[in-house]
Amino acid sequence: MARRRVLLHVDTVLSSSRGIVDGVAAFMNSGADWELTFDSFANIHAEITAQDGGRFDGAIARLHDEELDALRRVIGGPVVTVSTANKGPLKAPAVVIDDRDSGRAAGEHLKRRGLRHFAAVNVGQPNHAMLDRHRGLCEATETNATQTPLLAFVQLADFLRAAQFPLGLVGTNDNAARRALTVVEQLGLVVPDQVSVVGIGNDVQLCRLSHPPLSSVSVATERVGMQAAALLDDLMRGESVPRQPKRIDGAMIQVRASSDVFAYEDKLVAQAARFIREQPAGSIDVSDVARRVPLSRRMLELRFRRVTGRTIHQTIARRQIQQACQLLTGTDLTMLEIANQCGFSTQSRFAHTFGKATGQTPTHYRATHRPPPSLLEESITVSDESSGDARESDLRH
After folding, report:
1. Which CATH number fits domain 4-96+221-250: 3.40.50.2300, 3.30.70.120, 1.10.1740.10, 1.20.1420.30?
2. What are the two backbone dihedrals, phi and then psi, of residue 284, each rounded to the nearest 5 degrees?
3. What stretches of 214-296 show up as alpha helix (H) in DSSP?
4. CB-based burial label for 46 (10 Å; 0-12, 13-18, 19+)
5. pLDDT for 189-201, tens place per residue?
6. Pair 147, 167: CB distance under 8 Å
7. What would be the CATH architecture of the domain defined by 99-218+254-259?
8. What is the per-residue pLDDT for 357?
9. Least confident window among 40-54, 144-158, 227-241, 291-305
10. Is 326 helix (H, G, I), strand (E, B) or coil?
11. Higher-confidence residue: 156 or 278?
């Protein structure tokens, strides 16, 4: 049987598209018998007619609306879209990011940092993806579109002049968030104390070049590429088209300086949370935190849980896992060295605890999360057990 000829059409200027390419490559490396044409910039019709007979067996394309319809008319096989930037309804077959999940991840992060006022900002005309991200933000913050408005970029300065602070501001993508940082600075507002800013997409270079470095929601674009490729392979073998688009969740927050704040109204709880964050992972326990705050341990524990939604123990234990994730993705330290740095008594205890908290072994996590580095923050929950090592997995997959 001849190899199936597949067109991959995405714009690799976008970091999210590069993730999709990685996912398609991973699927092909698993044994797919494809002859791939990778086209990131050329005119679609010219690229197709340049092939033998102008025919492909199928395609994966980051196209939408009229461009997607045009490609589906001229190609000789199924076309799976990986774009949610559509103006009209999204048509199957499609494998796309769950944009509402991305908005929820941003909102949950800001809400857990103690913020109570929120807004979103978009550059250009909002498409379905941007609207869904705004809906997710409202869901996570338990607000409506009036309380948490979706602002056009030209409205941002006037909104900020009359806003209530501290404010959580979410860009519908990293570009919108980065431009918002510039407006905030021009108005003389302080980031993150008065305005905490979060983007969506986690374009690492763009986020690191922002001032201050931009927190952003990392989305599972590699999984989109892998599952789009698997769907296309099924369709080229004659399987039926799914009735609905497949939406991929898995959003996680990458915390950087633009939202690294504790805006709790209870200043003693904020002081305790800040102390936990500033200490080396695994180096303190609940009694250490209690000694730094002028409250009884019992009263501090009650107030901390009421304000943050977690116990002090859970917060300390999460810090261990977060630090382990950073070391796994950002260093070449051995597992034993990471276990020691994160305060675990043995390497086996580290592996057991990490697996319960994330659903992965440390080795698998390192293999699947570098490059780029990824920091788990809002996607880990920890059970409140006296050993300090038990974790419950509550990842967004």
Report:
1. 3.40.50.2300
2. -135, 165
3. 221-236, 267-278, 286-291
4. exposed
5. 999 989 999 999 9
6. no
7. 3-Layer(aba) Sandwich (3.40)
8. 84
9. 40-54
10. helix
11. 156
